[in-house]
Specification:
412 residues; Growth Hormone, Chain: A; 2 domains; transmembrane helix; membrane
């Protein structure tokens, strides 16, 4: 067991690694949606872009490789991070060669490679975070994860979208490359500690997926991971097309969603980390979806035609501020539930959360094309209240006590 608090060096490294994941993903899944919608692509087809997130969903399939294959001389997870981070940079350089409007198919293939490398990097950085922090620090470390992702969205989906609007695709991609490469410099000076929380009692395997989810409490935890992100992710998926259809310019969308919205999301993430440490995981788990049920309704303003800057910023700010606490508290609980293999077990829990969130965003966008924005917004707000009730019902079993967490950390 470690007895030192996480250092400033570790904090800076983890934050930058989490940021770098979403520089590219934020641009492709946020800015690219706006670019293509502006060129007339229908909502039903835009939902397909969210399939890039499938790599995040299924990354547990190759997570055992990262736990099993070790590079003792240069650091286990440090070496994996070098590999995946370098491939992310190279894939962005490849994508920069294409024209977004005339060469969409090869461009999306390149984006898919980037999404695979980013998902693999996420496996390694989550396992490294589990390795170097104490249980009591997990709330703030997962705030780094969510906050870092939002900073990446802020830059990739906001600032880089503005660069695209004024200078074009090639220069936008170069900025993404430069930002993604910065963490490679940090890794050069990082020395991974040899000790680890959990001594693995067996070799990690994909069969652990079934073993891990056995038992009544784990099945409820699975259902909660599946249900919890549905509403807020659906609302998040509607924001960009609502503003595009309201006549907003692309650079204004980037400024307000990926910059203003992400800033509020960052505040929400670190606020949630502080609240988790102060009030505990259970309180935040229960009350977050209830707050979301109210915040989601502010999307009705631009959806009904009240698309003035103040109304739209209220809607964007409400959704983004309330999105990050749910991701922060669930990520913290995922680390609590790790038993043997950090890379595999965290990844397969997060795949359930990611699957639900990405699917919900795409489905909400497609349903809005059929039933209209207003009806979909009202439906997901009501679903958020149901999620609150389910979180209250399941929290007694899915939120582990301090003694249980210590037993897991000392297992093996």
């Amino acid at each position: 067991m470690k007895n030192a608090k996480i250092s400033l060096q570790y904090t800076a490294l983890l934050l930058n690694l989490y940021i770098s994941q979403y520089l590219g993903l934020g641009f492709f899944m946020e800015a690219l949606v706006a670019i293509l919608r502006k060129s007339g692509i229908p909502l039903e087809q835009l939902g397909l872009i969210y399939t890039l997130g499938l790599f995040m969903i299924f990354r547990f399939l190759w997570a055992p490789l990262i736990d099993k294959v070790r590079f003792k001389r240069f650091g286990h997870y440090r070496t994996w991070l070098f590999i995946w981070q370098s491939l992310m940079v190279l894939s962005l350089l490849h994508v920069s060669r294409f024209d977004v409007l005339t060469e969409l198919q090869p461009l999306l293939i390149g984006c898919a490679f980037f999404a695979f490398f980013a998902a693999s990097q996420d496996i390694a950085v989550d396992a490294l975070a589990y390795k170097i922090v104490l249980a009591k620090e997990r709330g703030m470390v997962n705030a780094l994860k969510i906050g870092g992702g939002l900073i990446g969205m802020f830059i990739g989906g906001g600032l880089v979208l503005i660069v695209y609007e004024h200078f074009g695709w090639f220069y936008a991609m170069l900025i993404l490359c430069a930002g993604t490469a910065t963490s490679l410099l940090q890794l050069l000076f990082f020395k991974e500690p040899n000790d680890i929380h959990t001594i693995k009692a067996h070799e990690p395997s994909w069969r652990d997926f079934y073993r891990f989810w056995s038992g009544k409490s784990k099945r409820r935890w699975f259902l909660l991971l599946l249900a919890y992100p549905v509403c807020i992710s659906g609302a998040y998926g509607l924001m960009t097309p609502i503003l595009v259809d309201a006549g907003w310019r692309l650079d204004h969308i980037g400024l307000n969603i990926s910059m203003f919205g992400s800033l509020l999301g960052i505040v929400g993430a670190f606020g949630a980390g502080w609240l988790i440490e102060r009030f505990g995981r259970r309180v935040i788990l229960i009350w977050t979806p209830f707050a979301q049920s109210i915040g989601i309704l502010f999307l009705l303003l631009p959806a009904l035609g009240y698309a003035h800057v103040s109304f739209s910023m209220l809607a964007i700010g409400s959704v983004m501020f309330l999105y990050s606490p749910s991701a922060t508290v669930l990520s913290t609980l995922m680390m609590d539930h790790v038993e043997h293999s950090p890379a595999l077990e965290y990844a397969m829990q997060h795949c359930v959360f990611s699957f639900s969130g990405i699917l919900s965003a795409g489905v909400a966008m497609s349903l809005a094309g059929t039933f209209g924005y207003v009806n979909v917004i009202m439906a997901i707000s009501l679903m958020a209240i149901a999620t609150t009730l389910f979180a209250w019902y399941a929290s007694g079993e899915v939120v582990l006590k301090k003694e249980e967490i210590r037993e897991l950390e000392c297992a093996g």
